[in-house]
């Protein structure tokens, strides 16, 4: 327990400060330099006249026995009290303070009875008292420190005195850019690391810093040690720009990079396990209130996953439809946005897990490793489940699914506002080894996401709520535990920029192996490309949303399994919610409808409003030709927002990508402002 004693009770720390918080104000004048040492000398000198007065006062034979026994009791009580109150101090100080009070009380009692001028009381007072006063002064002089190396420690030591944690001893503080760190030694058995953590905001206030600027992290190997980190400037105020994919064309074994921590380290999330570093594969829970930046985090993670050579991303997003996933329209991601389809896919997962795990076993692998893709074509699968609470309640034994999925090379990412007991069972939660926590509403919500240790170490996602979108804490395998309580912020990005990088990688994107694709009712590569080969006259730009009963599914070869699956799906139709009607429509086989404007891209309602709806959408070739003509008529700088929707029938991100492509091909020239262009090739621009 923390010592809650009053600051004034310890002669070693009283006096000597004349600013509000003492430790900051320099004392130049000799009087103020000597003032801290006055109490022991003044106290010692006044003791003699006090004892003399008491002796004369109690001189009568009747009063003296009462006075002597009263003073003895009082002395013993004060000695015991001193010992108790100094328990949070270093052992030597505690013993010295107790001895000082005990000896002083004994001398005062004896001097009151016999008279302080008697031998040896007079000599004891003169030499013994003087010695005690000198000892206290030396102790104070050393503690206050004239030596500059110790200066910072003593200053910090005083800081702990102020928050009533005097026994806490700071070590040498290490100064880094925007950060000061140093070890703390706690008085073993007297002050707990949680006591210091609770005082961290008070310490920040005393240093004139914002809440959360001081963090105390416990030492996992020694409960009497901790680390104090002080971050002066809040560098997360302004998010950093997305630098592009971190490991394009490399393995998903490399971390997914999402942003930066306040100490400028990169926020890294490892998904697959790695035996060589004893790291486990992990699932992730993503939490954060509305507007806290979850979708932004998803988009960055998606861009990372989709630019790796051996990973497949499947996204289930039953709530926002393709509002969030629009930027993935040209990617290899598998998207399911109807609730019924999402649930069906989840129900098929156990089969996929069993198949993949036994397949990996046959190849001699007890978990997924890059060789599984390189040698056998089995990619790592990241199944990202948005608004998971709406789906998981209908999936039996999801905890078992989660438990088994990791060994089958599948990471589940469960994203929802909060993971309270109503939203997610404790069993499921215990299977999610990583937590990505954005701003939440309350401390309680933070507790559903982050571990107690991280919260005690100073993580406060509730301080952001949704006022600091993108700010996060991340716990997970492979991450240095000191970073668990370090705030970070996702990169600032635009959907267009992400889409461009993803599209660049799409031709090399990993394919879902045939057996998994079949069980889940998904195409192997991407809906976009499969669909394209089956319906090559159908426009593909928006064709990435893959409901389970899509034409691509019906095109799969019929066999015993698929008959069974279809029967099962028919049964399940009764259970499914709001999307049932759509599913029935989509389930009808429509393999050859060359001119039919089937547009599985659900982005259309969002951007192609009333003007576009009654119009047949131009094909990609027509859209590009229209855009080209339109550019030819432009005379000034323009951007994607200036391109009329009816020219192409698509959303603005399409224009954005097309313009970027044309600029790359040298047809138009980028202007100074990002995302805007001159309607001429570069050389003409210079000539003009
Ligand atoms: N790192 C960031 N820096 C600055 N702004 C950001 C960052 N991340 C997201 N934002 C902005 O914050 C707003 C909310 O973000 P986002 O839509 O990702 O939140 P959300 O948690 O998904 O919200 P909801 O659950 O309501 O969809 C958006 O305008 C987004 O552009």
UniProtKB/TrEMBL annotation:
* Residue numbers spanned by region Disordered: 1-21, 522-563, 575-598, 664-688
TM segments?
A: 41-60, 66-84, 96-115
Q: Where is the composition biased (Basic and acidic residues)?
A: 526-538
Which residues take part in binding ATP?
Answer: 288-295
Q: State a single Gene Ontology molecular function.
A: ATP binding
Q: Which PROSITE patterns match?
A: FTSK
The record's annotation in SUPFAM superfamilies points to: P-loop containing nucleoside triphosphate hydrolases (SSF52540)
Sorted alphabetically, which keywords does the UniProt record give? ATP-binding, Membrane, Nucleotide-binding, Transmembrane, Transmembrane helix
Q: What residues does the FtsK domain cover? A: 264-447
Name it. Answer: FtsK domain-containing protein
Which species expresses this protein natively? Actinopolyspora biskrensis
């Amino acid at each position: 327990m923390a010592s809650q004693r009053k600051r004034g009770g310890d002669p070693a720390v009283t006096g000597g400060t004349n600013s509000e918080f003492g430790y900051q104000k320099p004392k130049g004048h000799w009087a103020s330099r000597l003032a801290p040492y006055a109490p022991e000398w003044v106290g010692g000198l006044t003791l003699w006249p006090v004892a003399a007065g008491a002796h004369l006062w109690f001189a009568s034979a009747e009063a003296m026995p009462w006075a002597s026994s009263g003073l003895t009791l009082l002395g013993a009580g004060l000695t015991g009290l001193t010992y108790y109150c100094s328990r949070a101090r270093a052992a030597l100080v505690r013993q010295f303070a107790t001895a000082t009070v005990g000896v002083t009380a004994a001398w005062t009692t004896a001097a009151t009875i016999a008279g302080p001028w008697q031998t040896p009381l007079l000599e004891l007072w003169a030499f013994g008292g003087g010695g005690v006063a000198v000892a206290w002064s030396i102790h104070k002089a050393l503690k206050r420190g004239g030596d500059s190396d110790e200066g910072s420690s003593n200053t910090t030591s005083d800081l702990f005195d102020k928050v009533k944690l005097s026994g806490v001893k700071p070590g040498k503080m290490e100064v880094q850019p925007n950060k000061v760190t140093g070890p703390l030694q706690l008085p073993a058995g007297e002050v707990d690391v949680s006591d210091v953590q609770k005082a961290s905001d008070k310490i920040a206030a005393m240093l004139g810093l914002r809440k959360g600027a001081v963090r105390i992290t416990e030492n996992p190997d020694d409960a009497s040690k901790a680390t104090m980190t002080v971050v002066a400037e809040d560098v997360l105020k302004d998010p950093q720009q997305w630098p592009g994919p971190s490991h394009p064309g490399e393995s998903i074994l490399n971390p997914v990079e999402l942003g930066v921590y306040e100490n400028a380290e990169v926020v890294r999330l490892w998904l697959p396990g790695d035996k060589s570093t004893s790291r486990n594969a992990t699932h992730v829970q993503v939490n954060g209130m509305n507007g806290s930046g979850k979708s932004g985090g998803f988009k960055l993670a998606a861009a990372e996953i989709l630019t790796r050579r051996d990973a497949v991303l499947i996204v289930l997003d039953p709530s926002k439809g393709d509002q969030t996933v629009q930027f993935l329209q040209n990617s290899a991601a598998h998207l399911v946005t109807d609730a019924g389809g999402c649930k069906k896919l989840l129900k098929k997962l156990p089969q996929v897990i069993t198949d993949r795990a036994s397949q990996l076993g046959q190849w001699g692998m007890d978990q997924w490793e890059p060789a599984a893709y390189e040698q056998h074509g089995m990619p790592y699968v990241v199944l990202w489940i948005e608004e998971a609470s709406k789906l998981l309640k209908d999936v039996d034994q999801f905890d078992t699914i989660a438990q088994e999925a990791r060994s089958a090379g599948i990471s589940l990412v469960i994203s929802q506002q909060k993971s309270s007991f109503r939203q997610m069972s404790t069993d499921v939660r215990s299977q999610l080894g990583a937590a990505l926590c954005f701003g939440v509403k309350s401390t309680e919500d933070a507790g559903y996401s982050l571990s107690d240790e991280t919260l005690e170490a100073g993580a406060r996602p509730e301080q952001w709520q949704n006022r600091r979108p993108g700010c996060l804490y991340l716990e997970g395998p492979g991450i240095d535990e000191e970073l668990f309580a370090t705030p970070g912020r996702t990169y600032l990005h635009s959907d267009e920029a992400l889409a461009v990088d993803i599209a660049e990688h799409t031709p090399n994107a990993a394919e879902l192996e045939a057996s998994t694709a079949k069980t889940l009712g998904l195409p192997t590569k991407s809906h976009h490309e499969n669909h394209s080969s089956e319906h090559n006259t159908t426009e593909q730009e928006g064709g990435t949303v893959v409901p389970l009963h899509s034409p691509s599914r019906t095109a799969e070869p019929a066999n015993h399994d698929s008959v069974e699956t279809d029967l099962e799906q028919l049964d399940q139709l009764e259970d499914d919610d709001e999307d049932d009607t759509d599913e029935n429509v989509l389930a009808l086989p429509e393999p050859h409808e060359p001119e039919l404007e089937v547009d599985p891209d659900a982005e259309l309602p969002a951007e192609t409003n009333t003007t576009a709806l009654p119009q047949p959408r131009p094909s990609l070739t027509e859209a590009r030709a229209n855009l080209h003509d339109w550019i030819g008529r432009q005379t000034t700088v323009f951007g994607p927002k200036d391109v009329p929707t009816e020219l192409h029938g698509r959303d603005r991100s399409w224009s954005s990508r097309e313009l970027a492509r044309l600029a790359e091909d040298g047809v138009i020239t980028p202007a100074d402002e990002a995302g805007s262009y001159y309607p001429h090739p570069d050389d003409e621009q210079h000539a003009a």
